[in-house]
Amino acid sequence: MDLEDLGLSRQELGYSGFNEIGTSIFTVYEAASQEGWVFLMYRAIDSFPRWRSYFYFITLIFFLAWLVKNVFIAVIIETFAEIRVQFQQMWGSRSSTTSTATTQMFHEDAAGGWQLVAVDMNKPQGRAPACLQKMMRSSIFHMFILSMVAVDVIVAASNYYKGETFKRQHDEFYLAEVAFTVLFDLEALLKIWCLGFTGYISSSLHKFELLLVIGTTLHIYPDLYHSQFTYFQVLRVVRLIKISPALEDFVYKIFGPGKKLGSLVVFTASLLIVMSAISLQMFCFVEELDRFTTFPRAFMSMFQILTQEGWVDVMDQTLNAVGHMWAPVVAIYFILYHLFATLILLSLFVAVILDNLELDEDLKKLKQLKQSEANADTKEKLPLRLRIFEKFPNRPQMVKISKLPSDFTVPKIRESFMKQFIDRQQQDTSCLLRRLPSASSSSCDHSKRSAIEENKYIDQKLRKSVFSIRARNLLEKETAINKILRACTRQRMLSGSFEGQPAKERSILSVQHHIRQERRSLRHGSNSQRISRGKSLETLTQDHSNTVRYRNAQREDSEIKMIQEKKEQAEMKRKVQEEELRENHPYFDKPLFIVGREHRFRNFCRVVVRARFNASKTDPVTGAVKNTKYHQLYDLLGLVTYLDWVMIIVTICSCISMMFESPFRRVMRAPTLQIAEYVFVIFMSIELNLKIMADGLFFTPTAVIRDFGGVMDIFIYLVSLIFLCWMPQNVPAKSGAQLLMILRCLRPLRIFKLVPQMRKVVRELFSGFKEIFLVSILLLTLMLVFASFGVQLFAGKLAKCNDPHIIAREDCHGIFRINVSVSKNLNLKLRPGEKKPGFWVPRVWANPRNFNFDNVGNAMLALFEVLSLKGWVEVRDVIIHRVGPIHGIYIHVFVFLGCMIGLTLFVGVVIANFNENKGTALLTVDQRRWEDLKSRLKIAQPLHLPPRPDNDGFRAKMYDITQHPFFKRTIAVLVLAQSVLLSVKWDVEDPVTVPLATMSVVFTFIFVLEVTMKIIAMSPAGFWQSRRNRYDLLVTSLGVIWVILHFALLNAYTYMMGACVIVFRFFSICGKHVTLKMLLLTVVVSMYKSFFIIVGMFLLLLCYAFAGVVLFGTVKYGENINRHANFSSAGKAITVLFRIVTGEDWNKIMHDCMVQPPFCTPDNSTYWRTDCGNYAGALMYFCSFYVIIAYIMLNLLVAIIVENFSLFYSTEEDQLLSYNDLRHFQIIWNMVDDKREGVIPTFRVKFLLRLLRGRLEVDLDKDKLLFKHMCYEMERLHNGGDVTFHDVLSMLSYRSVDIRKSLQLEELLAREQLEYTIEEEVAKQTIRMWLKKCLKRIRAKQQQSCSIIHSLRESQQQELSRFLNPPSIETTQPSEDMNTNNQDNNAQPETSSQQQLLSPTLSDRGGYRQDSTDGGKPQRKFGQWRLPSAPKPISHSVSSVNLRFGGRTTMKSVVCKMNPMSDAASCGSEVKKWWTRQLTVESDESGEDLLDI
To answer: How many C-alpha atoms does 222 have within 13 Å on its Cβ side?
Structure first.
């Protein structure tokens, strides 16, 4: 095929394409705006392979239009939230308070509820009788008026076009409007008579009613009927909002504080006016451009760009008109305006709506408590399907005792009682067989509790009253006031005593630790201490404020305890109810009322159904963390059970088989496709039978049909089974068989039931149904108002003759010729007088093809399409051309309200519901920061950066060079420079390509040098630890391979590979800048968290694609149904539906699928032989798909991106732990974790905590107790096993925040219980260590005294004998004893070392030297021994010291025998023995390092 260059200019070719870097950027931006991208893709499909075009444009839409574009919304929302906090005073006053509304009272409204109204509102000020005033204030009167408004709306919606000859004055709709107008006029007069004119107009609602009365009264005048005054008639529907209190509150929440939303509307209008004036001045002189000739035209063009509908056409026409020279400047102008208007201005509307939906901080805390109470109430009740058994009489299972004497009869006994007795006897027997003392004691003690005691315990827990808890808390509050005041005073005195000294900035860990200690000391302080006198008034005021603060904290404690007690009681009540039903009803918890509760077959089915892969990362015995290399794969395997995995695979295979079906290859005629159908039905039958036998069908606690997912499973199974048994050969259109095939297309929805995360997505969608329903009602109300107005103004006026030369309807008859444009290369023979080929068509007077306003239904459909911002430009042009330019205001107002408020309201409500379902909507600012911190810590990872080599050799210098900031910036500049090489197309035939490729080779060698330097500096193992280094190594390796192939082959494929390598290397620059890294993390984490939402969207799209093949697989080609976009197969249907998700001309595709005879060929036998569409099916199909996907699912992506952006985007003031703190911890962890495994032993945590500096520093002089708590928390985490990076970081995060402000209820309870346990255990350890030190000092004194006595015995033996009693001295030679002892000690050094740890003797010289050094310190500790000044104290000490060693026949024992024991030594020995018995202190020194820090 030969290609011919037509020689077209730039204006004729257009500015869209990928030939230059400028037009390429311009084209990518157009496609990212989701306007006209599909036609670019179709052009690429005609030129390149289909897969390449699909991959490029679909990924472009996903990343740029759905992810990156929504980041702008997140930025605007977060920025607006910060500005709102700064200008809170300006936005705080929602409305000006008038004098009439200063005093309010409760008043019963029409719905029977109560609301606050002004006192003067219902105060009789008129001259009406009391009976009329009472009637006017009654709820019956209000309901009657609202019902009349509803009837009026229904009558107005029933209006339709009746033809040109019909007289409107005699129309029944006109007469009904006159009657309703008179009725509402009388209502207004009655209210004015009852309230007085001043009292009547004081209400904003009455002002609106008065405006409607005046406008509708003028509207019924014949000359003004069906004029612009029709607006007042259709606005009556707004009064129906008063019917629903929920809808009224929702409307007030959105539009009540009108200052923000009104200011934004004024700003938008001002922006449009200013930009229209600027565009008018810039382009009014351009020839052949009529879009900016006048200000109204310029305004409509700029408004069209704001709505993104056809903005590319406006820009292309302007670019072609201004010429090639000024085209780039004009393109930049329009792109900047489009960027600001669509990404910033519309995001501001979303931010304002979210701000209006935001609750106050106090209200959030209150709703949290109420929600916890509601959850406790719901847990108390059993499901309705189980409560049915309560309606039947109790029939417990009875057994008869046999093998007893027949002298007396024994009644039957409950089987549960006998079974309990047998189980208890077996449990006692098992206790006796156990040998472990701890396990046997705990289990046996539990088995000794009788059933009566258990029942009493449960009964006491159930009968515990809330009032007793409140009374006890009240008593605690009253007795704690003095403690609070005393502690506050002491704290101020301590802080005031150091005012003159420059205090060191305390770390956040120390601050939070002292806050906890102060709170607990105030809670458990002593009542005996009193407030010091002589305080100033300011000090007393501060004491009172602190008292109120702590009183509120104690009240919160009591509420938390009460809710916790209530939850426990609810759970216990539910368990008791279930056990009672299980005991009293023999058919309870029996699958199909046949299989026994403990039947072997049921147990087997349970094992099969519940078997799953154990993906636990911790050892269940020791609690240590398992170092699994493929933990992500293990988590995936443990996501669902093995049976569910099998069914997921079978369902996926079945869906793949359905994708090969088409109207021309049906499952009824294809045996290969029937195999997958049989396999699916057989496997699902086995699955359901196993689950029903294991868990029951309906009337069991864990039944298969216990929620909507179970119902859907049974429905899909029945549909598949019926279709498999039937297999209809002939399927007529719009028949039951076709409906069965459509229902069969719901099979992919089984994945939602099988995967837990998919069920969570469905719950997130349906849990916010109320708010979405309210928004839908508001939008339907808006559409109904404008639809009624459009019917009365435009009905029958939009029709036109298809011959453009005919103006009047009377002349529209006969036939006319339509010319067709063809290519110049076609040598067509034309008739004489014909310039172009064409054909003759009949003249028809008809409405536009896609819309009309002849009745309310068609008008609502047209406005729904306009609300999606598709096709509204065509509607505007038709109305202006056929009715008048003034009526263009109608469509512009509707588009502005629908686009700026309606659609953004949908976005805001979906985001708010997502936050509410995630639990973040009711979170306070501190709680939100804490949740962000936890999510940020989960993402944080160790640095994996090896330390600098110790020596100053070659590796150390390389390390310094590669880690220098200048080196990193240089590499980033080189990456950008290499990326610039792609600004010119690399073509084999272009001579410029060779130098560009050569420069890229040079850059590649530079990057190879960079990688080599890093490997030398860090070592290969250290280099491989970082993921970024791995990515750089991969890209560099690909670059080396490309260099080899480039010089070897030198063809188009090598150039393409080189371009891909440059693109891959460009992404490495994102991690080298903080802001880029933050945005990249936002996108990546959003993709990760939205994975299941994206999968859910694809499953819905797959279901609609299968249904589209059945419904519209053979529809004839039309305006948008063509060879690229059709439903002939599931693959093409998926691409069409993806196009509809982006909103690209979805309404035109819908109208093509609505084609009906005589424009198609019908066939009543089978649906695949006709080329007609389905009007009702297309309407339901396309509208439901667009609402679910475009309005809900895509907005969930926006919500996830907003959540993740707030996770990474936070200022230093908002962060609990800043990025510098995390970076510092990562560096310290990198120093301690020398093996780079992410796990360290527990004893290294102490070393790590000592190295921390800054805000995470722990001062060992001031916060020794905090240090002990942190160390013990790490020790008890995994029972002394290794701890991970996130374990230590999580502990530091909990210690760095005020848990009372940041943590939610359940987490707060668990954390406080943990900290109380840690405090108790650390206190016990401290006591043990203190006692061991005391014992150590006592032994040191004993050893030191005995050593001195031994030295004095050798030098002054005669003097010592004179002081002692000679008759009682034994004649044993002490030297022999000492020699014997020395020989024993020398012969057994190991025994001596152990003896030094247990009980030191006279021969333990090492212990003496060690203790004597402590004794030589200038300060005395605990009665330190001092040299005696007289022999009597020496004897006294010898006696007291040698009491412990009286078993030896030495001089020491002789002395002990001769002297009585002193009182002090006796008391010390008794205290030592008592503490030994109480705390079972062992004489080891394992905890000295904890004490001597």
So the answer is: 5
Q: E-strand spans in 661-727?
A: none
Question: What's the CA gap between 881 and 888, in Å, rounded?
Answer: 9
CA dist., res. 1274 & res. 829, Å (int): 92
Dihedral pair phi/psi, residue 118, rounded to 5° = -70, 150
Count of CB atoms within 10 A of residue 1290's CB? 18
Distance separating alpha carbons of residues 307 and 615, to the nearest angstrom: 50
Q: Which amino acid is at 252?
A: Y
Distance (Å) of CA 572 to CA 381, 581, 700: 11, 14, 19
Span 620-639, average pLDDT: 69
Q: 1465-1470: list long-range contacts, CB under 8 Å, 24+ apart.
A: 1465/1439, 1465/1440, 1465/1441, 1468/1338, 1469/1443
Residues 6+ apart with CB under 8 A from 1210: 929, 932
Residue type, 1002: V
- Rounded alpha-carbon distances, angstroms, from residue 1312 to 563, 1216, 1317, 1318: 15, 19, 9, 10
Average pLDDT over residues 502-529: 59
Task: Decide if 1105 contacts 757 (C-beta within 8 A).
Answer: no
* Residue whose C-alpha is closest to residue 1249's, from 1238, 1234, 1237, 1264: 1264
Which of 720, 759, 755, 742 shows the shortest CA–CA distance to 647? 755
SS3 117: strand
Helix residue ranges per DSSP H, 358-465: 361-380, 384-387, 415-433, 437-448, 451-463
Query: What's the per-residue H, E or C state across 718-781?
Result: HHHHHHHHHCCCCCCCCCHHHHHHHHHCCHHHHHHHHCHHHHHHHHHHHHCHHHHHHHHHHHHH
Task: Find the distance separating the first CA and the last CA of the chain, reported in whole Å.
Answer: 87
* H-assigned helices in 1356-1365: 1357-1363
Which residues are bridge partners to 838 per DSSP? 819
Beta bridge partners of residue 414, listed in sequence order: 398
* CB within 8 Å of 798: residues ≥ 6 apart: 847, 848, 851, 852, 853, 878, 879, 882, 883
What mean pLDDT do residues 319-333 have?
89
Q: Which two tokens stand for residue 256?
A: 């009540």
* Nearest C-alpha neighbor of 311 from the set 583, 35, 676: 35
* Site of tokens 């046999």: 402
Report, as an integer, the average pLDDT of 1416-1420.
39
Judge if the upstream peptide bond of residue 222 is cis by omega within 30 degrees of 0.
no
pLDDT at position 1403: 35
Neighbours of 832 (CB within 10 A): 4
910-965 per-position pLDDT tens digit: 888 777 777 666 777 777 788 878 878 887 888 877 878 877 788 889 989 998 88
Q: Which of 1353, 1366, 1352, 1450 is nearest to 1401 (CA)?
A: 1450
Q: What is the pLDDT of residues 238-281, one digit of tens each?
A: 888 888 777 888 788 777 666 778 888 889 999 999 999 999 99
Q: What pLDDT is attached to residue 747?
A: 95
Residue from 1125, 1105, 1106, 1108 nearest 1173 by CA? 1108
Q: How far apart are CA 832 and CA 1264, in angstroms?
A: 108
Closest alpha carbon to 1091 in 768, 764, 758:
758
CB contact burial 995-1022 (16+ within 10 A = b; e otherwise): ebbeebbebbeebeebbeebbbbbeeeb
The pLDDT, as a whole number, for residue 125 is: 62
Tokens 């004081």 appear where?
Answer: 202
Q: How far apart are CA 959 and CA 1017, in angstroms?
A: 5
pTM of the model: 0.76
| Angle between helix 1194-1208 and 925-939 (nearest 10) | 90
**Cβ-based neighbours of 1173, under 8 Å, separated by 6 or more:** 1112, 1115, 1152, 1153, 1154, 1155, 1156, 1160
Q: How many CB atoms lie within 10 A of CB 42?
A: 16
